[in-house]
Design goal:
With about 290 residues, the protein is mainly α. The protein is built from 12 helices and 8 strands.
Length: about 290
């Protein structure tokens, strides 16, 4: 979708100079997740990124209480390496006249572009922004009000089965439902035709502030992910190499959940595609005085 909006623009040309000959933005947008694979599968470029960013897995999300109305730096579920702050750092790298080796992430423009392409998708997934917090009575609470509860890690700790969780449902099942709705029609064309861009999707002010604005917008969809769901049996999950000991809960989805979430995902994907292109065009605006 972003490539559609960027066709014939300076930003589109700048993107092409940073990507390899056989890469498109769709492939580039998977780079940040592929960098999570075991080291033997990583390219030299990925290994350097991982070495310089050992906490890179946390760049893909924040964990705002879903009852809140806006992203605010310093609130519960935010940190200096969350998705909003990481996107801001990547935008600053892309805006700089030259690649700056002293930037906090120690990345060049190419890696910054690939991170932006990926994280803009994550930023529009409601459970990459909103999270539930569950108290000892197995009730959803808002820690911003002083209540105490364990975070569900973007619904990773809300289990549909022993092998699947609510976060994974939104990452995969809801997108499949949307693709199935499009049927034989190309999915990009389907989204472009059913969800044309709207003025209210644009960021306001400096581009470095847009990730915070868009996280706030996504947060408004997060309550829908938890509507009709009640935490069930509490399970103690022992510590492993990736997680400390924590609780998980079994849940059941309400009957209308598939259709309700499909509509949200379609809209969020449409926003993400448009906003990725708009961000890149703000970074690389058209030359107002082209040389003749």
């Amino acid at each position: 979708m972003a490539e559609h909006y960027l066709e014939g623009t300076r930003a589109g040309r700048e993107v092409r100079t940073l990507l390899h000959a056989k890469e498109d933005m769709a492939r580039a947008a998977t780079w940040a997740d592929r960098a999570k694979l075991p080291e033997k599968y990583l390219s030299a470029e990925m290994k350097e990124y991982v070495a310089n960013n050992p906490g890179h897995r946390s760049y893909h999300y924040c964990d705002l209480p879903f009852q809140e109305k806006a992203y605010r730096e310093g609130m519960t579920g935010t940190n200096p390496s969350d998705i909003v702050q990481t996107l801001r750092k990547c935008i600053e790298v892309l805006q700089s006249p030259e690649a700056n080796p002293e930037n906090p992430l120690k990345i060049n423009k190419r890696v910054a572009l690939m991170l932006v392409a990926h994280l803009m998708g994550d930023l529009h997934q409601p459970l990459h922004v909103g999270s539930s917090y569950i108290d000892e009575d197995n009730q959803f609470v808002n820690p911003e009000t002083g209540a105490k509860g364990q975070m569900d890690a973007g619904a990773n700790y809300l289990r549909l089965t022993s092998r699947t969780n609510l976060h994974g449902f939104w990452d995969t099942k809801t997108v499949k439902l949307a693709r199935d709705k499009a049927g034989a029609e190309d999915f990009t064309r389907y989204l472009l035709s059913h969800f044309p861009k709207k003025a209210e999707w644009d960021g306001q002010g400096a581009p470095t502030t847009w990730p915070e604005q868009w996280a706030t917008d996504t947060l408004r969809s997060s309550p829908s992910a938890f509507k009709g769901i009640a935490p069930g049996n509490r399970i103690t999950v022992p510590k492993d190499e990736k997680h400390d000991e924590h609780f998980a809960w079994t849940i059941k989805l309400p009957p209308d959940y598939n259709e309700r979430t499909r509509v949200i995902v379609e809209l969020e994907l449409a926003k993400a595609g448009y906003r990725l292109a708009a961000l890149l065009q703000a970074i690389w605006p058209e030359d107002k005085n082209p040389k003749m």
